[in-house]
Amino acid sequence: MSEEPQGQGWPPRDATVSAPAAQTPSGGARSPGQGRRGWRRFVPGWRLVLGALVLIALLLTGGFLAGYALVHIPSANATATAQSNVYLYEDGTLLARDGEVNRESVPLGQVPLTVRQAVLAAEDRDFYSQRAVDPKAMVRAAWNTLTGKGKQSGSTITQQYVKNYYLGQEQTLSRKWKEFFISIKLSREQSKDEILQGYLNTSYFGRNAYGVQAAAQAYYGKDIEEIDTAEGAYLATLLNAPSTFDVTTHPENRNAALARWNYTLGGMVKEKWLTPSERAAMTFPDPQRARSATGLSGQRGYVVQAVEEYLTGDAEGTVILDEKTLAAGGYRITTTLERAKQDAFTEAVTDQVTSRLDGERKADRNVRVGGASIDPATGRVVAMYGGVDYTRQYVNNATRRDYQVGSAFKPFVFASAVENHSRTQDGGRITPETLYDGTDRRRVEGWSGSRYAPENEDGISYGRITVTEATDKSVNAVYAQMAMDVGPATVRKTAIGLGIPADTPDLSASPSIALGPATPSVLDMAEAYATLADHGRHRAYTLVTKVTKDGVAVRLPKRAARQAVSREAADTTTGILQSVVDGGTGTAAQSAGRPAAGKTGTAEEDRAAWFAGYTPELATVVAVMGQDPDTGTQKSLYGAMGVARVNGGGAPARIWGQFTGLALADREIVEFELLLEPGAWQERSPTASSSPSEPGRGSGSPGRAPSRAPSRGPSVSGGPGETKAPESPPLPEAPPTVGEAPQEAEAGPVTEGVGRPETGEGAPFGGGSDGGAGDGGAPGEEAGPAGPAGPADPAGRPDPGAMTGPR
């Protein structure tokens, strides 16, 4: 071996041995990635990958913890909690809905199990076993959306509920972020059943139906409890694409809807919620056609308005629900209204009034109609007519209190007389056969206020006339004096007891109270007449039989009956009102084809015409009113419907007759069973009555019992000696001739409508801007035109159907 040292970096002696690696100038070691060539230079080492994964895990964990801590469960959004109130007929069928959102929340137990299972089969089959969120489904949905396979949410039912109830429908990352964390939190605070219930009540099904109950009504016209499995599967199908899968609105999508329906049922079979044989027996349940959104049109709005007023404070001041609570919605309100009777009322008004209106006739644009019908035995309002259409005329003509009732008030005066055993100024007992002085503009005796001498219709003087005849002909002079004999304050008290609200405008304790200047509503009058029909027992009317929210019943006040007047007082009043229908001003009501009692009424200047009446089973009041559609001011009905004057014996009585006949068509005819006051309709000498002062305009025939009075039965009492009133003060020897005022009559033109005393100091009735109500108005009072007298019958009586003016 050579002893010469080997130099560093010298070539080896052995050529097969490679030279040692050269040192870097700095003498350091080589870096791990150094020396890589090509693409390998860009691949991170395992240490870098591991470090990045750890960092990402830390960030995700920190982000999750931060998100969970920072995102709270918010309050529900206003749209999710908004519900409509649902109004039902007494038989449970839908009458109306109010509110902007068509939703009625129901408890989960009210939804059939198969319907719930159909929803799960369509939307989330693992709902009860999986967690609140499904990350894999979210990733899969995102991938399908990106690759053009359709937009998919990838959300569980819990996430969909959170979106519906707490958030909104916007497609943003922030919303999805919140949805994710709220869903996790919510699953820890609510059970699966609670979440499913919320989901079913907040989901949109199309046809403006939010929630499964509204959907059941919209597509199948029934409540969710009645939905079967096939129908439930279709409702579940709609959740995927509500408008697209509506096969009646979009028949071109029927195949797609059928495919989704089959998918839903197939899922139920797969989950063993449905047997293959049950599935094979099912056919597609076509839904009903979509109905136009009628909302509160027609009579619906009037009914809703009346029911709301009843619930938030009725005539007796009873508050069942305060306004804010009711406005929040969600109530299911069963009314007392009967669909058939509602339809009958509308039909009668259409036939007797609406069809007779002419757009070219100026007076016809002012015509309004209101009506109400009550079952006397229960106080239930079975029908109501508020106007032609709530969306066109917003004021409910059945509940408004601004039109005088006129002579329809007179029966309350007579009932008060009998109830209080009242006597005339001469001391005679007031009965149907009591004779009064029916002279036109006869001064009321016993009144300490300013002089009051009401005018009869068309200025007719009847001479001595019985109470029955005075009621038949609606003689103002007789009833103003009778009110004085009874006592105006006593009459007022009786009227309130029968059902007229104490705060009714112009219900003043003066002799004019008899002629009806007061303005109770049609519904108020129906309640009072129902008291007479039920033999003097008063029941406050009711419009509601049941109210529930979320399946929980709201407590309703009890409506106990009380005896407002004695049976004798009520039944004797019924007797004279039968005579009005048999041969007085209300003969048009005979079209009902049943025993009936009633009274006509006409307001001052013919601004309203009334007919109030009843059978043993039904009390109904109808009013035709005049109102300017532009200004809202009251207008006379002269010339409306092509007749010179509209009075209670015309259109109102005809509506009453047609409605009553239709409403009771399926019931047997029932006679009145009356217990009369002693001495009612006892025989008397024909000479006790004198002829009217105007030949051909009145009857001097003796008073008579109504033609159906024999139905009084064995309880009829009274006999000779129990007495009719002594004669009133003698009449002037020479009655005034036609057109001539009696000696004590006030000068001035004839004023139509209800009577009233003069205004001024000591006057019993304060006049308004139009002079108030008054047949015999104060001097200088503006008068309406006098209508022509009706044709006389052979006995000299005017045709009741042609008689006009205040009755």
Count of helices? 21
State the end-to-end distance.
Answer: 157 Å
Give the oligomeric state: single chain
Please give the share of residues in helix: 25-40%
Overview of the structural elements:
- The chain is built from 21 helices and 14 strands.
- The chain is an alpha+beta fold and 807 residues long.
- The strands form 4 sheets. It has a 5-stranded mixed β-sheet with strand order 2-1-3-9-10, covered by helices on one side. Strands 5-4-14-13-12 form a 5-stranded antiparallel β-sheet, sandwiched between helices. A two-stranded antiparallel sheet has the order 6-7.
- Helix 15 packs antiparallel against helix 20.
- It is elongated and about 135 Å long.
- The N and C termini lie far apart (157 Å).
- It comes from Streptomyces katsurahamanus.
